[in-house]
Each structure stands twice: as C-alpha cells, then as structure tokens.
Amino acid sequence: MPCANAFEKDMAQFLDRAQDVMAFCKNAGPEAVRIDYQTHTGRLANYTPDFLLLLDDGRYVMLETKGRVDIDVPIKIQAAEAWCQAASTSSLNWIYAYVPQEIFEKFDDMSLESLISATEPAKSSLKKEIVEAPLSLEKGKLEELTTEEFIDENELNLLPPKCKKGIQEAIALFKFLEGKSDVSFAAVFTPLLGPIDDAARSVIITTLKDTVPQESTKRERFFGPDLSMLSPRDRSFHERQSKNIRRTLIENDGVMPVGLLRWCLEYAKSPRTPPGGIFNAVKIKFVAPAKTVLPNAVEKVYSFRNEFIAHQEKELVDPELARQALKDWIISLKQNFAISDSENTSQTEAL
User: Fold this and answer.
1) Is the same domain home to 182 and 228?
2) Bridge partners of 100?
3) Are both 246 and 176 inside the same structural domain?
4) Claim to verify: residue 119 and residue 139 sit in the same structural domain
5) At what angle do helices 278-285 and 190-208 cross, to 10 degrees?
6) How many domains does the chain have?
7) What is the pLDDT of residue 27?
8) Which of 58, 37, 61, 32 is nearest to 47 (CA)?
9) Quick one: which of 212, 215, 199 has its CA closest to 251?
10) Tell me: the pLDDT tens digits for 288-315?
C-alpha cells in the first residue's frame, strides 16, 4: 500500500491494528474516490481523501490525515461530508473522519471510533472557518495588494514564492475580515501554516545536516546514543525527539517543525549535559541561533498557534491581536529564511 508520507504510513499501521477496522485501503490510483469542490478563490478543484475503511459495525469511513491546515481545508471537509451524506442509504452508511497529525501523535488507544471522537472537535472548529474569498485573492490580484503595513515589498520579494504567496493571502484575508463584525480571524493564518513549517524545517536541516554521518553504522549510533543514564521519562522523551529529528533530516518529513525548532533552541541554552550523538550536535550547532532574536520569534508563533489556531483554546475575534500576530509570524518567517540562507552561504564558502 503506497503512502505519500510518514504520517500516512503511521496511520496505515494504526488501521491495520485497530480493533474495530475490518478492512481499509489507500484511496489512490485511477479508481480513487475524488470529490469536486470550489476553492476559496472560486476555482473548481478535486480532493482525494487518504483512506477508505470498513468498520466492524458495517459503517464505511472516508478518512483524511492532515499534517498541515491550508485555507481550503474547511471547504474540503464540508464537501466530503456532503459526499458521505449523498452516498449513504438506509442500508449503507458513510462517515467522514478528519485526523490532524498533532492529535494522532498523542493518541494511545487502538480504536478508530475513539480516534474519530478525539478529533471531532478539531473538525468542527475548522468547519466554522469557511470564509468568503475577497476579490484581492482572485488570480492576478495578489500582486496588486499593498503589504507595506506588514512587510516591505523588497523584503517580500526576497522570500521563496510559496512563502510570498502565503503572506499575500494572509494579508488579503486580514484586510477583508478587518471591516466585518463578529468574525474569527483564525482563517487569516492558514495560508501561513505551510510556510511557517517549511521555514522551521529549513533552519533545522541547514543547521544540522553537516553533522549527520554518512556511514550507516555511525549514523545509527548518532541517532541512537546511549540513554541508559537518563530517567525512564527523560529517556522516552529523548527517543521521541531523536526519531523526529531523524525524520526531519533524512526523510524531510518530521512532525511539528515549529515545536521541534523551539526545542532545539531551548536545548542549546540548557545547562544539562547532552547524552551524545544528535543531542550533542543540537547543543553545539544551535548555540549561535539561540543567542539571536529567533527564539523569541519562534515562541510567539508557537504559543499563538497552539492557543488560537491548532487547539483553538480561545476565539480569535480581536482584530488588533490578529494584526500583531500576523506581523509576528511574518517577522519569524523572515528570520527563519535569513538564518537558513546564512547557514547555506557559510557551508558553501567553507567548501
């Protein structure tokens, strides 16, 4: 069963072991179920959920695994649920499950039904974030958008195309919602979630990639240093961090890059002696970045995302709070890419 990324592989393993899953398949290939929907800019597109399953109670499940939230996710959820409703009959019941990666990573049950229940609040919150597309998001209009309040145009043009577009979309959405009453500004930040993750991942990779041994045996020891001197709790934590850094550096597919970068910066400042291997590398290589303004910028993004976007502990209805947060996120993006460029330049000059 081909899977596109590590999260899908983990999900496939979970479904294979889940007590209430009778059968499942990857929704791929020419026979895949594809759902038509209209994007936030009005363009027609199709959406292919990740898995199709049969539960032990006879229900069918269309399941989506999601590592990143883009601005069209609420629309896709609505379209998928409409498809399930239309496909269901008196003798055939389809349901749609949306599983965010950060919830799945913390889940320790072996029941899909329990997983669906655990992820339902996140799905329900996202469904509320569907917004009408402002005219400034139409094709060809983004370049006409004035961004000076948030970022200088010259600085914007130096950023990678995906990052630049994400910033433009976020600013356009903010300006569109700013004049409305009783609205949530959470959708403003969805175009930036991908670029924020990409930027954090880029800093981690460019900072640590030259420390990874090429020889396989040495590489195994590097990512699996002796942790026997640690307490069971610390050992478990270090094992998870090592696995995540390895996935980030080797497969370019680690989870929660912003959280991982935040930890790397904190670890470099910690007085504790690292247990060797990758932890020594993090301690040494992140000393310089940890002395810059980057830790504060990353912390602002991390805390805000958890409070208002990922977990939605609070409603984001204050335009001034959203305005300042948008500025903070853009500053963090600029700093992350600046550090990545600096690291790459230093390594090139060393060669």
Assistant:
1) yes
2) 66
3) yes
4) no
5) 100
6) 2
7) 92
8) 37
9) 212
10) 999 998 999 999 999 998 888 766 667 7
The pTM is what?
0.68
| Burial of residue 323, with CB atoms counted within 10 A of its CB: 0-12 exposed, 13-18 middle, 19 or more buried | middle
- Using alpha carbons only, what angle is made at residue 169 by residues 300 and 123, rounded to the nearest 5 degrees? 70
Distance CA 280, CA 274 (A): 6
For Cα atoms 108, 192, 291, give the angle at the middle one, nearest 5 degrees. 85
Crossing angle between the packed helical segments 278-285 and 232-246, to the nearest 10 degrees: 70
| Number of neighbouring beta carbons within 10 Å of residue 37 | 19
Q: Which residues of 110-149 are buried (b: 16+ CB within 10 A; e: fewer)?
A: eebbebbebbeebbebbeebebebbebbeeeebeebebee
Query: For 20, how many CA atoms within 13 A lie in the half-sphere containing its CB?
Result: 14
Q: Which two tokens stand for residue 72?
A: 């069209």
Its domain, for residue 92, covers: 6-127
Query: What pLDDT does residue 176 have?
Result: 82
Annotate 21-52 with DSSP letters as a single string. EEEEEE--STT---EEEE-TTS-EEEE--SEE
Residue holding tokens 């469904």? 127
Residues 18-56: tens digit of each pLDDT? 999 999 999 988 888 999 887 766 667 788 999 999 999
Mean pLDDT taken over the chain: 86
Residue 1 lies in a domain: no
Which residue's entry shows tokens 């609505």?
A: 78
Domain end call among 111, 127, 143: 127
Q: Give yes or no: residues 11 and 117 share one domain.
A: yes
Q: Give 51: exposed, middle or buried? Use CB within 10 Å, 0-12, 13-18, 19+.
A: buried
